[in-house]
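Researcher: Checking consistency across runs. Here is Branched-chain amino acid ABC transporter permease again:
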Amino acid sequence: MEIIGAQLINGLSYGLLLFIITCGLSLVFGILGVLNLSHGSLYMLGAYIAYSVTATFTQSFWLALIIAPIIVGVLALVVELSLLRPTYHLGHLSQVLLTFGFAYIIHDIAKLLWGSNVLSISVPAIFSGSVSVFGQSFPAYRLVVIVAGVMIAAILWLIQEKTKWGAIIRAGLSDKDMISALGVNIKVVFTAVFILGGVLAGLGGVVAAPILGIYPNMEFEILILSLVVLVIGGLGSISGTFIASILVGIAETFGRYLVPELSMFIIFALMAVILVFRPSGLLGKKVSEA
């Protein structure tokens, strides 16, 4: 029983880590309608930049936690202005191809700058210890990830559902012409949302680096899991992404513990079962309503 409890905590920690990584992708798709396949690359850059900050310039994890998301956010601004904005009228396929191609460009640049070795970042000293949970030692940093994931979910939900800014964003997605007629520059709003998505991806990279490590192809591995979370939760639903992240985290954790060879199969089987009963995802809108 103690082992099951410990695995649940591990799964919850991993699930909320997935949420921190994926929430930016969900936000951008839900509000802009853009499936950003370079999201994993922005996440990877956040991790690599954090490594450079902590290994080369300073030993401060906290400074990396600030600098890396800002740099990734600036890159997201460049991507939105130069690649995506000119293609909004062309449909989703061009955006998918552009962002996927950009992901490969970032992959090659990252290998050129940081090499192919596996890198790591140490957790802050204050969180380097362990806590006893269900009679077993549990890293304190993973508990911090759980708290951070819940806080980010609450903040995003409040912004999206309870603020004037969130109302403008949702209305802009439904009727751009109406919002523009009211004097709101919808292009600026969409750019701000894409920057926020990039900042969240970079933040996810920094937070995940001490746990998952930093290595080539990490962006594509996390992109696959992020897309699974996105589909299970419902495309563009922050609340659905939160629930789906926890489900996937727990499913993979128990899968790796019980049958390591089938851990990925379990995740995709979970997705298939949910889509059979909820084709639009747990909290996604029906196709006819989209």
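Researcher: Does this match what you'd expect to see?
Model: One thing to look at in this run: The chain has a mean pLDDT of 86.
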